[in-house]
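fyi for ur records
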Amino acid sequence: MREKVCIGDLGTIITGKTPSKTNKSYYGNYVAFIKPTDISEDSKFTYETEEMYSKLAAEKYKSSLIPKGAICIPCIGTIGTKMTMTHCACYTNQSINTIICNENYDNEYVYYLMKNFLPNLKSYNLGTASGREFISKSNFEKIEIVAEQNKNIQKEIGKFLSRYDSLIENYQKQIKLLEESAQRLYKEWFIDLRFPGHENTKIVDGVPEGWEKKKVGNLISKVLRTKQVSANNYLYSGRFPVIDQSRNYIAGYTNDIESLVKVTIPYIVFGDHTRVLKYVPFSFAKGADGTQLIMSNDLERMPQSLFYNSLIEIDLSNYSYARHFKYLKEEYILVPSKDIAQRYDKVESLYFQSIQKNREQIRHLTEARDRLLPKLMNGEINVNR
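which gave:
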């Protein structure tokens, strides 16, 4: 039986805390500390965090400890787009309200219940003086939501939808392993200089004979300008994926042919605001401002696969906000001989093909899960049938 309840009825609501940044002893590697920026829209769990609590901070804020299986929802900043489930005990910052389910509700069910409800949080935004979106803990607890009351049915729904996310997570892990393998090969050939034939190649001033160092900016062909798709026009499904760096890669879909970037050779997509690089081998539409499309102007000696792996080795962490592309172009990278470049591209292209196949599987699973989600939550589909 489904009934209207308040979010506060689902369990205990905890708002996280951020230890003082001036006290460095509060930060270490003792326990995970989740912030909204750590949460991906594409993943159920958040396994990696930018910062972690020290043991001292964990003891000081022990009343805010979040157990495994809790549901964390950002309620300050951008709301209604992200959430996560804790895979272990951890802490969160003050932007996140966390639901720790009581004995009447199944954790997995509540995660999907809130995922289905997530876009509706926008309508509860009271805002702040600075214009940031904001839902207070007290208002969050009072939000009404329709929830299944039979715990056995809750568990069946949770198990059913979790199968999709488990498969998605497996494909994500495969992608990560493939990306790591690609980077290891790059490191071996172009950092350690153990490329094929290195034993018989002279090294002069750190550069193999026949190679050279060039500025990134001198290797980029004209940056492509296209019509951008507004976030308000993103579709749940469509002919073309929309690449939006501020929303973690593929943010939605569009049918707008005027915005399409037709890809015959993979583009490298760079997000100025996020410093994120992605290798995109399929046609797409461009979403967010600050997204640069990078193409090598010498595909024989700097194929896109090599250019991409060279660029992600560059550390932009010390450069000023929103001007990263300017600094990226001033960095130097190694340009190998044509023979080595082509041999590398032949191997790397196989990695990228496998990565793309896994991404397609993730897309299909995500679409299937998201089609079923509202139907399961409103009782249109009975999981016991």
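The first strand starts at residue 2 and ends at 6. thats all i got for now
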